[in-house]
Amino acid sequence: AAGAIVELRATIGPEALSGATSVSVHQFNEARRAESRYVRVEQPDDLDAYEWQSRDSDTRAIVVRQALASSGRGFVEVGVRGEDFYNIFGLDDDTYSFANGAWNASAEPFYPRNRVVSSLRVRGAYGETGDARPLDAALGLSQSGAIPGNFAGEPTVERSREIEAGFSAGFLSDQVTVNGTWFDRRTSRALHTTPRAPGAGGSPVSLTSTGSWETRGVEIDARARLVDRAAVRFDLGLTFTTLRNEVLSLGASPPLIGADTRLVTGYPLHGYWARPFTYADANNDGMLVSTEVTA
């Protein structure tokens, strides 16, 4: 794989309030090669038998962004990215938007000066991304187990959008700092396998891009400086994280039931499932054997 970025940037305005416009061109080239060797039963001495697969693809993009910054107080940036999937059969070009901003509230004249809440900054971001993995699956280059070309519907770019908000606060003259972040990422046109009709022949599953799922969570990081001397510094940190993943839709596809994992609407993506059972620990040793399972 290889990539290149060319960017032009222009900044105008006074130091206190300035704007910057940039236009960049990206190109990413990816080459995949796969070779498998095998021995024919009728010709066991023929070690040159092999199977060869290859694919070359280019992703070209142009990114335009506009930023507005106020020195020491905050900034706002918006932009758009347009992608051209050159030499990738079956994929339509796509456009993604993004925006982010931050505000240093403690730098404003009206912010009360005190040691209790010595600093406060807030931030937010929105972004969209795309993923062209369905093409690899459609061509049989993924590890899904589907045969080449076994794709239900047209290959599409898996699309995700994410919203993020957070804050950074300092207490006791920034001896104690707390950073918090909330995020929500939703993926649409998501790639997943779906069972094929009995008697269709070939692989028992095919690939489709009708799914959608969501991942959201909260991250909180707190740090306190307990000792701050010329030769000794001691910090104490605590991190708290929550993460929730849920399948929102599989389109017209039924739930995918595996030996241990399942893909079911309303549950985590590829969650583990097990059959409940009852037991009687006959010898009270805290360990179960098969004869102690009652149902």
How is the secondary structure organized here?
Blueprint: E1 2-12, E2 17-37, E3 50-70, E4 74-86, E5 94-104, E6 117-131, H1 133-138, E7 158-171, E8 176-195, E9 205-228, E10 233-249, E11 256-257, E12 261-263, E13 271-272
Antiparallel strand pairs: 1-2, 2-3, 3-4, 4-5, 5-6, 6-7, 7-8, 8-9, 9-10, 11-12, 12-13
Summarize the structure.
2% of the residues lie in helices and 59% in strands. It has one helix and 13 strands.
Protein architecture, described:
This protein is mainly beta and 295 residues long. The protein has one helix at 133-138; strands at 2-12, 17-37, 50-70, 74-86, 94-104, 117-131, 158-171, 176-195, 205-228, 233-249, 256-257, 261-263, 271-272. It starts with a strand and ends in a 23-residue tail after the last strand. Residues 141-149 have low confidence and may be disordered.
| Helical coverage, percent range | under 10%
Number of strands: 13
First-residue to last-residue Cα separation = 54 Å
List unreliable stretches of 5+ residues.
Answer: 141-149
Please identify the structural class as seen in this structure.
Answer: mainly beta
What's the arrangement of strands in the largest beta sheet?
1-2-3-4-5-6-7-8-9-10
